[in-house]
Design goal:
about 675 residues, alpha/beta, nine-stranded mixed β-sheet, five-stranded mixed β-sheet, about 40% helix, about 15% strand, globular
Amino acid sequence: MGDFTLQDPDLESVAGKVMGAERLSKADALTLFRTDDLLGLGSLANFANREKNGDRVFFASNQHINPTNVCILRKTCTFCSFARTPKEEGAYTRTLEEVWEEAETARGSGIREFHIVGGLHPKLRLSYYIDLIEGLKERHTGVHVKALTAVEIAHLARIEKTSSVEVLMRLKDAGLNTMPGGGAEVFSSAVRVTLAERKLAAEEWIRIHREAHSLGIRTNCTMLYGHVESLEDRVEHLDLLRTLQDETGGFLTYIPLAYHPDNNELGKELGRQGTATTGYEDLKNIAVGRLFLDNVHHIKTHWPMVTPLLSQIALEFGCDDLEGTVIYERVYHEAGAVTPMRMTYDEILRFIRGAGKQPEERDSLYNTIRSFEPGSGTAKGVSKHGSEKTRERLGRIAYVNCYPVYAAIDRGIVRCPADLVTGSPAELNDLLAAGELDVSVISAVEYSRNSHLYYLLPELAISCDGPVRSVMLFSKIPLERLDGATILVSQSSRTSVLLLELLCAEHWGVEVKLVEARAEASDLDSLAMLPHDGVLVIGDAALLLGRRPVYEYGYDLGSEWKKWTGLPFVFAVWAARRDSSAESVKKIHAALLESRDWGMANLDQLAAAAAEVTGMRQAECSEYLAGINYDLSYAHIEGLTYFFRRLADRGIVKNGTLSFISAA
C-alpha cells in the first residue's frame, strides 16, 4: 500500500489510517504490538515521523545529577537497582555544595540542561531541593532545570504535609523549568503491585502531571516495558497518556524505557539476570509510541538503556530525539546497563549524520539552537549562544596547568581577540571538531586524528620532560601485580588514556581492563563506590588525590614515559580549524604567546592562585608549574612524533609523523 512494503496483511488497515492522518484505536495499537512485520511497522512509524519532523533529529547538551540514592521504597520497588536504604553499602546523599561541585563540571562545556532525579529520602525536605535549584540557577545562569518526577513531588508533599500543587509552585518559584516523566512505569494496577506496590498510583501520576501542566510546567512522559506487563497493559498506558495530552497539551516528548533486570529483585525472580529487552522489542515500542501518540510531537530514544547503535536505528522507526550528552548516568547503569556513562557532542553528531538525518541541537522546550547539515560538522545560522557569530571562539581549560597560558588574558593584561569557552580537554576536542570553536587547546591525539581539519599553532604546547604530577595512575597494588587489574579512566583526556595503554602494553608488560568513569576533582569521593584496582586521574584532580592517603602506589606517567623513551612528552597542543579566518587565528596566536610569556614571568603569582584551588602549599604549586613546558621545541616534536608512531603501529591513528604541521 502506497510506499509501504507490508508483509503482515493486518497492518494494511492501520496503514490506511496513518496515511490519512486518522487517529488509531486501542485495537490498532494491539495489532501493531502483535505484528511480526517489524520493518513494515517501522516504515509506518517513519512515515508518521517525517510528516511531523522531516529528517530532523533533535538532541540536547545535558548533565544528569542524582542528589541521593536513599529511598523509602527500596524494599518494595522490585525492579529498581539504584535505590539504597540509609545504612546500606553504597548509599549516598550529596550536600548542596557537592551537587553544585558536580554541576560545576558543566561550566563552559555547552551544557544547557540539568536533569535531576533521585530517591525518596526520608529526611530531605522541600527546602533542600529549593536551595539546590536556586543555587544551580545562580551559578549557571540560563541553564534549564528539569527536575523531580511525579513520585518525588508526591513524596515531598507528604513530608511537608501540603499539596502537590503547593510543592510544584514553590519549586517553580525556585527556578524549576520542566519535569522528567519517570515513575510512570506501567499504569496497570496489577503490574504496579508486582513492580512497586507502594509507589504512586497511576491516577496520582496523571494528576500531578496535570497540575504541573496547569502551572505552565511542561513534562515528559514514559513507559517502562519488558518486565511482567501484557500488550494490553501497554496500550492502556499509552491511552491514558494520549488522553491527558488531549486535555492539557503539556507533554514535550514520550520516552519508552527498557527494563534492565540486573541487580534487582524482579530480575532475580524472573530468572532474567544478565538479560535485557531485545532490539526487536525496543524498536517496536518506539514505533508504536510514534503511531499511537499522535498528539505528542516528539519521541525520544534513550541510548543509555538500549545502546547508541540501536538508538541510531530507532531514527528510522519513528524517533526524532536522541537523548543528549547525559554525562555520568547512574540509574540505569546500576541495573546492568553496559552503555557509556556519557556521549560526546561529536559522537552524537556522528550517530545522527550516519543515519542520514539532520542534527538539530535543541533547548529543553525543543527550540532549535543550532542546525547541522546531515554530512557537515558545521552549524547553520546560529552560534553556540543561539545568535549570529560576531567573534572567533577560543577554547580554554580551567586546570592549573593552563594558568601560565591564559592568566594574563583572564586578568585583562593581554587583550584576547576571541570569546573564551571553558571545558575539559575532551569537551574542547569535541567542540572544535564540531565547528563550535575556531581555536583551542586540544589533546595531542585529537590533533593527530583530525589533522585534515586543523593546522597547528607553533611554539605552544603543554608538555613535560620527566615528572608532570598532574597525570597520575593511582593504584592499590604495585605495577608488577597490575596484570588483570581494573583501572578506572576518565575520557577527559584521550591522550593520557592512550599513553597509559602504551605504557601497560609496551613498557610495563601488563594487560589491564580499562573502565570509563568520571574522575574530575568533584568526583574523587564517589570513586570509592566503584570496584577497581587503580585509577588514572589528570589535571587538578590528580594534584588533589595525590595529597590523600587513599592509594598506596602512585605512578607519574610523564616520568614513566621518560624512563621508557628518554624523550619529553606532549600532552596538548593548540590548533585552529582550517576554515577559520587566518588573520583572526594569527591574532589569537599572538595573544596566547604574549599571555604565556607573562605567565612564565609571574609563576609565583600563579602558584599562589593555584594553592587556593588545590590546597597545596604555594611552594609545591611553584615546583609543579615550573616543571611543565609550554613551548613546542624540536625535542618535544621528536617525543610527539615517537608517540604518534607507536599509536600508528597499533592502528589507533593513521599518521605516525608530524609532516602535517604548518604555521598559523
